[in-house]
Amino acid sequence: MPVEWTIPKGAPAETGAFFDWADGHGAPMARVVLRPHRSLPRSGFAWFLLIVWGFLLIPLIPLLGTLALWAMLPFLLLVLAGLWFFIERNYKDGALHEIVTLWQDRIEVRRINPRAPDQIWDANPYWVSIRLGPGDRPVENYLTLKGNGREIELGTFLSPEERQNLSDRLNALLVRAKSGPLTPAAQPTRPD
Question: What is the distance between the terminal CA atoms of the chain, rounded to a whole angstrom?
Answer without folding.
Answer: 39
